[in-house]
Amino acid sequence: MAADAKTHEMKPMKPEEVLRLIAAQRGAAICVPTMTTGPEWRAIAPNDLSVGCVGFMGGASSLGLGLALARPDRRVLVLDGDGSLLMQLGSLATIAGAAPRNLVHFLFKNGVYQTSGAQWIPGGLTVDFVTMARGAGYRAALAIHDIEDFRKRLPEILTMEGPVFVELHTGLAEQTPMTARGGVPFPEQVTNLRAKLLRPRATA
Amino acid sequence: MPESVPASLIIDTLKDTFREARKELAAEVAEPPQHSHLGWILSVPDTHQKTVLAALDKEEQIRVLTCATEDEAATIAGGLYIGGEPVVLMIQHAGLYASVNTLRGVAMDGRIPTFYMIGLLSREKDKAPRESRHSMVRYCEPLLDTFGIPHATLEGPDDVHYIPEYYRLSRQRKGPAVVLVGLETA
To answer: Which of A40, A56, B138, B148 is the most exposed place for a label (fewest CB within 10 A)?
Structure first.
């Protein structure tokens, strides 16, 4: 198939490089990593405006949507995976319906469930998430295969009117939540991010 | 015998609940979100509460977001909570069963206050839900009990006080709390 052939011709981007570029340009955006984007994001951006989707695979896009609707004054960047998104694929339509202008939905596409042993996702690399996002009603949806192209386009992506969907063709991550365990537990991440956004009076 | 609760009464109670939630948040934090609406209903449409959903369509003070699944609704509620927004989920029992892992992962393990109104579609008027001949009605309370989730049932207009009480309870316990809607709303 065309998508498969194209992907095999090109060297996939390293997810760590992609994440470092996002971290460098995100500004005050809230970020929602999940699964294989989690360990590297934890190292790049510890203790900041992030909350990881941990313990409910598939929820990153919905968690990001809730944050985007609550805080329209801030950008929200979802750092999703292809296997994860398939678990709540309907969220594409829900996000498009809610139409948050401040949401950018990055999809790290590697074709596999890397954390559980790199089994193929249904359809593998042939699944066209860009078409799905566009069909659902995202304001913009695009695919990026090359790190230099991503570097050039990222500033514009981060200022586009959302919801924006960006399918990033990446290889396997160096670490997964199974090989790099630890990090701040999810409830503490929730408390920390909420405190940073709302500033409880006792600590204000 | 149980009675149907009018949609208008439920909506007025929800508005009061949201007002109280915003007032409390404003007292607690320096930067509460500034919105013109009072709060959010996240719904995967429930036949049992359809009169409420229809009336909410005309409400400007409450924002309604229809979600594709109950998993999404519970997770979006988590994001809204982190951002300081008051939220109520309106789903039906089948949706509760469908989204148990998200309920566990987000509301329970994540210690995120999450208030549900769950319609008991097909509940017989002359039977307690646990005695229903329909498994989707019969298993609802035992499932909530298994997870240790506090719940009460609207069995008539006099019970609407459960809505603010269980909303508050979800905040106090930092987890889920449920009001079951016993009969189809009027």
So the answer is: B148
Residues in A closer than 8 angstroms to B27, CB to CB, are 201
Which homologous superfamily is A2-196 in? Thiamin diphosphate (ThDP)-binding fold, Pyr/PP domains (3.40.50.970)
Residue linked to tokens 């924006």: A164
* Residue of A94, A103, A193, A203 for testing the chain B interface, max B β-carbons within 10 Å: A94
Q: How far is CA B140 from CA A61, B118, B119, B169, in A?
A: 28, 9, 10, 19
Residues A25-79 have pLDDT tens digits of 999 999 999 988 888 998 898 778 999 988 889 999 999 999 999 999 999 999 9
Residues 6+ apart with CB under 8 A from B55: B7, B8, B11
Count how many pairs of residues, chain A against chain B, have C-beta atoms within 8 Å. 128
Question: What value, to the nearest 5°, has the Cα angle with vertex A88 and ends B71 and A126?
Answer: 170
For B7-27+36-181, CATH number? 3.40.50.970
List of chain A residues whose C-beta atoms are within 8 Å of the C-beta of residue B80:
66-67, 69-70
Contacts of A65 in chain B (CB under 8 A): 72, 76, 79
pTM (predicted TM-score): 0.95
Cβ-defined contact of A62 to B31 (cutoff 8 Å): no
Interface TM-score (ipTM) > 0.85: yes
**A93: helix, strand or coil:** helix
Omega before residue B33 within 30° of 0, cis: no
User: What is the b/e burial string over B158-182, where b = at least 16 CB atoms within 10 angstroms of the residue's CB?
Assistant: ebbebbbebbbbbbeebbbbbbbbb
Q: CA-CA distances (angstroms) from residue A78 to A27, A37, A163, B5?
A: 14, 10, 11, 40
Encode pLDDT of A124-146 as tens digits: 999 999 999 999 999 999 999 99
Measure CB to CB from residue B71 to each of A55, A88, A186 and give the nearest one. Answer: A88
